[in-house]
Structures are given as structure tokens and as C-alpha cells.
Amino acid sequence: MERDENMFDIDTYAREAAEHRHYLHAHPEPSFEEQGTQQYITDCLHGLGLNPSPIAGTGVTATITGTQGPANDKVLLLRADIDALRLTEETGLPFASQNNGVMHACGHDGHTGTLLAVAHWLVDHRDQFGGTVKLLFQPAEELSPGGAEPCVKEGVLKNPDVTFVFGMHLWNTFEFGKVGLRAGPLLAEADRFELTVTGKGTHAAAPHLGADPIVAAAQIVTALQTIVSRETNPLESRVVTIGTIEGGSAFNIIPQSVHMTGTLRALSREDAELGAASLRRIVSHTAEALGTTAAIDYEFGYPPVINSCESVAFLRPILQQLVGESNVVEPEISMGGEDFAYYLQQVPGAFVFLGTRNVAKGLTAPHHNPKFTFDEDIFPIAVSIFVAVVRRYLS
């Protein structure tokens, strides 16, 4: 990473980011239950002389105004997500989760620690930027409908009006220090659905006297895969996954009903709507053909994350200067979801990945895995990226 003498001692702030991360990792809280996390963030920001405010229940927002040059009406929003996952940790870290059954298995502790350190840098160096930085510590990214949409509804992009939004995800899929920057779709729309197939229960030895919802459910699971294999352009992307199936109580009883949940992913709302229509048709007709009925509850989730070409063009030279041209790469589109999309629907901006995978250190566990952790040597780069975006955009 190239050093900018105007950034002063980034390593000091990077160490601070790690300290914040350790506390947050040890005290994880799931979506919309981040009261302790909210208090910790609020106390840290008060300690910097800022005046933070709650948002979306358990989130926090604050603003910092620079003093460089004449008055500047640009407003840059920096976002970090703060929630953890309901997962039992198996990392063996000295700062492992003290909240049984909950852990930071996606790097949100690193995101929050980074942004708190960046807030400190901004307070210490107001003369290095003009305009306004709005900090957003957002709750509930992991739980659809999530925290971004209520943040928008509660005015996080207003008063003052945000003119650019930037977010970054620590990414164990990428080699350490690589930055993933892509124009256009980056992450998919993430919809969810529930299906209840109802038949007629009977003795397992007399299936002709009932209508078997298990057989119907099995046929539905198979038939739904044709949405991808036969109704989606091979050059485009959709995913249909059944995640749970529940039904039956004994080996010798055909049950009355079977319940299933799943997700449909697409790279545009239009494709998601077409997929949802196909799902309804396939589920209803397959159930009917087998003498059962199906109730469908479909929920459109986060929209796709789409980076504007202009925003990517603005960020590319900044990132290349920091990590080297060869380390700024175009990532493959991920069918994962991210509610950062709601901000990008309203204002220009971009979302990037920062690689944290380190094979030599054995830090390779994927996100949402009980052994997930990341290389904390990434913090100087993470802090520098946020600082560089602030200084370039608001100078």
C-alpha cells in the first residue's frame, strides 16, 4: 500500500479499529437487537466530541464537518453494518463471542471497528477535507427486510442531503489486500418464500385413502429447478433454493401438510418478478396435479446492489493509488444480497469488496461459517480507503 504523508499515522487508527473489533466480536448481537452495540458506538462517538443520534431502532448516525477551504455542500455517507449472526462460534479466538449462539461471522465487527477509527481520524484532521461526512452504523443487514430501508425512510440521506454514498465489505473470498470494484450489478436481489402443501393425512399403508403432501413437495422441489434450467437465459443468472422442509410425525403416517422455505435470487427486480410468477405457477399446478393444494407467501427482499459507472470511475484511481493497479480487480457477480442497495437507489455511490483471505495464516473460512475470522492486518488498508475517499471527494 502506498503511503500518503497527508494521512498522518494511519497505523494508530488501524490499531484502534482492531481494539474496537475485539470488543464488538466478544459482544455480538443479532439483527435489531444491537442495543449494547448501539451504546458502545454512541459512547465512542461522544468521546470524540460528536453528537450521535439513534436511527432505525438500534442504529447510530453522526455528522462531521470539515474545515478545508470555502463552504462545501457535498455530503458523503459512509456506512458500516453492525449486526451479528445466530451461530455458535468455533474460532478459538481470545476475544471469541461471550454471547452463546451469536457470533460475528461476516466481518461486521471489522466494518464497525473500521468506521469508528475513521471517525476518530476525521475529527483529528478536519482540515484535510471540506463539506460533510455522515457516518451510519446500520443495524440488521443480515435480516430481511433489514435496516437500510428504515434508515432511508427515517431520513439518513437528508438534512443534509447526501450526494455520494460509500460502503465496503471485508471479503474472505478475496486474497488479502485485493479490492473488488465493479460497475453495474455486484450483488443480487434476495427474495424469500414460504410454501405450505396441504393434502389429506392417512395411514402409510393406505396411501390411496389420502393425498400425500410429501410426494407433492418432492415434485415441487424438483420442478422449481426448471426456473433456472429452462426459463432463464443461459447467459443470465437466477438461483432458486429450498432451504427447509418440515413435515410428518411418524414413519407410518402420511401427514396432512408439509412446510418449506426458500430463496430466489436475480440481478434485477424485473427478473425477480418473472421468477416469482414462475414459482407461483409451478407450485400451484404441481400441487393440484397431485391432489393437494399449496399456499405461497412470497416476499421481495433486498434489491440488487448496482454500482454506477461514474462512481466506479471516480473510485478506481483512488484505490489503485492505495493498493496498486494490479490489486484492484473486477469481482464476479455474487448472488448474495446486501441492503446497501437501498442507498444506491437514491444517490450515486458504490460498494466494494476488500480481500481478507490469508492462506499462509490459515484464515480461509467462508462467511457465515462458525470458524470465520479475518486477517486484522487489513485494518491499515481499510482505514486508508475510507480516508482517501473522504479526502478526494470532499477536497
UniProtKB/TrEMBL annotation:
Its cofactor is Mn(2+). Keywords: Hydrolase, Manganese, Metal-binding. The keyword Magnesium does not apply. The keyword Cell membrane does not apply. GO terms for biological process: diaminopimelate biosynthetic process. One of its GO terms (molecular function) is metal ion binding. Residues 192-287 form the Peptidase M20 dimerisation domain. It comes from the Bacteria. The Mn(2+) ion enhances activity. Mn(2+) binds at C106, H108, E142, H169, H368. InterPro entries: Amidohydrolase, Bact_exopeptidase_dim_dom, Peptidase_M20, Peptidase_M20_dimer. This is Amidohydrolase.
